[in-house]
Amino acid sequence: MRSAAFAFALLALTPAGALAQGAATPAAPTADEAGLQTAIAKSNAYTALMNRTLRAIQSWERYASWVDMKKGPTGKERYIDYGLYSLYDVTGEIKRAEEAVTRAPALPEIDQTIRRYIRAYQEFAPLITRAERYYERKDYRDDNATEGRNLHMLMVPAAKTFLDERATLDAQMRVYKKGLDQRELAAVEQREGRSVRWQVRNVMINARVVMDLMPSNEKPIVDLKAFDAAVADYAGAVREMDRFKETEPKGVPFIESQASSWLGRLRDFRDKLGRGKGDVRRGAANDANWLVSSYNTMVSLSETAIRTLR
Q1: Where is the secretion signal located (predicted)?
Q2: Most buried among 30, 68, 269, 309, using CB within 10 Å?
Q3: Alpha carbon 83 to chain centroid distance?
Q4: CA 293/CA 91 separation, integer angstroms
């Protein structure tokens, strides 16, 4: 089981100015709403960068799937053709995140971490790109993998720094976004009631709580009591969405089916965890991989659903 399977996306929040569903001209925000809007804008800038740079984690884990990380490449690996994934252009995301650092609200710990994260990415990403091209072109056949070994020696420490900063940023943003999630959900309900937008946010907020309890390489054993509570809350959010459809035949676009399927697979996963006493390594790793991949899809679909309402 590789840690790449557990790299998951974050959900961007809805700007306060977009909350009034169907309104031609949004009402002027109150002071509280204005504060929420600036907090959401900052969070979204950081979230966009984190989601876009997930590709570097996925690329590194693809590399780690076929190379001996202690010895480096020899050029004769069975799956050397796997190479690495090419990275996305994140110039715009970095620029917006750097601008957000200087804006209110001041978040001293997170702001400092995002600066370090950007620096770590900017040191790591060019090495990934060089390696991706090297293996794509099969240059290791010409130099007996000499350049591959040189790159490996540079990438390993750069990857460690980047992944360490990512872990710190993930933990900090998880706490920060939890508070914003609840404020945003309350603001949506106050303006629109339990609308389509509210349903999307409610489902995804509860899905994120489940994701925060998913296993990792470092913590492969799941706290089953906490996991059961999170799944129950997520199931409640899905049932709330079902009730909404009873009065709104169009239901909740894009994520309705995916959210229901995810709940079913969550319950299958929980059964396997139970048989393995919470240890994902005892027959549940493939299910965990599927759940993370499907969650990332739900994040994209939910953001599409929100955009269609604006």
Answers
A1: 1-20
A2: 269
A3: 23
A4: 25
Q: How far is CA 268 from CA 25, 68, 107, in A?
A: 46, 34, 39
Which of the pair, 46 or 28, is modelled with greater confidence? 46
Reported pTM = 0.77
Taking alpha carbons only, the member of 305, 310, 244, 307 closest to residue 22 is 310
Burial class (CB in 10 A: 0-12, 13-18, 19+), 22: exposed
DSSP state of 187: H
Q: Quick check: 84 and 129 in contact, CB under 8 A?
A: no
Which amino acid does the sequence have at 246?
Answer: E
**Mind listing the pLDDT tens digit for each residue in 264-300?**
999 999 999 999 999 999 999 999 999 999 998 999 8
What's the token pair of residue 9?
A: 């996306």
DSSP codes, 240-252: HHHHHHHH-TT-S
Q: Give me 58's structure tokens.
A: 């996925």
pLDDT of 4 strictly over 50: no
Q: Residue 295: CA atoms inside 13 Å, Cβ hemisphere, count?
A: 29
The residue with tokens 């794509």 is: 136
CB atoms closer than 10 angstroms to residue 116: 15
Q: Which SS3 state, helix, strand or coil, does residue 253 take? A: coil
Distance between CA atoms of 186 and 141, rounded to whole angstroms?
59
Looking at residue 7, the DSSP 8-state letter turns out to be: -
pLDDT in tens, 114-137: 999 999 999 999 999 999 999 999
Instruction: Please give the C-alpha separations between residue 242 and each of 67, 70, 245, 260, 262, in angstroms, as whole numbers.
Output: 47, 51, 5, 10, 15
- 198, 192 in Cβ contact below 8 A? yes
What is the phi/psi pair of residue 156, to 5°?
A: -60, -55
Phi-psi region of 194 (alpha: psi -120 to 50; beta: other; left: phi over 0): beta
Kindly state the tokens that stand for 78.
Answer: 């069975």
